[in-house]
Amino acid sequence: MTGAADGAYALWEAEYDKAYDNPSAVHTQACAGCGERCLHLMFVVDAGQPEKGRPLFWCSNCNRGIFLCRTDIPEGAERISKEQADDVPNYQVVIPT
Ligand SMILES: [Zn+2]
């Protein structure tokens, strides 16, 4: 296991839940890792299934985030294609402890 603060996963999950409920306000939330308001939430959409996507949730300040399974995309959330997902930084995944 690498450096991400232990016990942080629950904090990340809580921030993700908030972002999922109100995606357009994700930039107002403080990062669970560093406290900066640099969080991003995007959903990688497969062609032909626009209502579902794989969430990418990360902070562009400390470059940490969490990995989540495909889910329904909430209203107002940012959608990107698989090709666009290649441009998302390869952030450090905080894992459950
Ligand atoms: Zn951060």
Would you write up a description of this structure?
With 97 residues, the protein is an alpha/beta fold. It has one domain (8-93). 19% of the residues lie in helices and 28% in strands. It has helices at residues 8-21, 82-85; strands at 39-45, 52-59, 64-67, 71-72, 78-81, 92-93. Strands 1, 2, 3, 4, 5 and 6 form a 6-stranded mixed beta sheet that branches. The radius of gyration is 13 Å and the shape is globular. The mean pLDDT is 92. Zinc ion binds next to loops.
Structure summary:
This protein is an alpha/beta fold.
Please describe the topology of this protein.
Blueprint: H1 8-21, E1 39-45, E2 52-59, E3 64-67, E4 71-72, E5 78-81, H2 82-85, E6 92-93
Parallel strand pairs: 1-5, 3-6
Antiparallel strand pairs: 1-2, 2-3, 2-4
Zinc ion (ZN) binds next to loops.
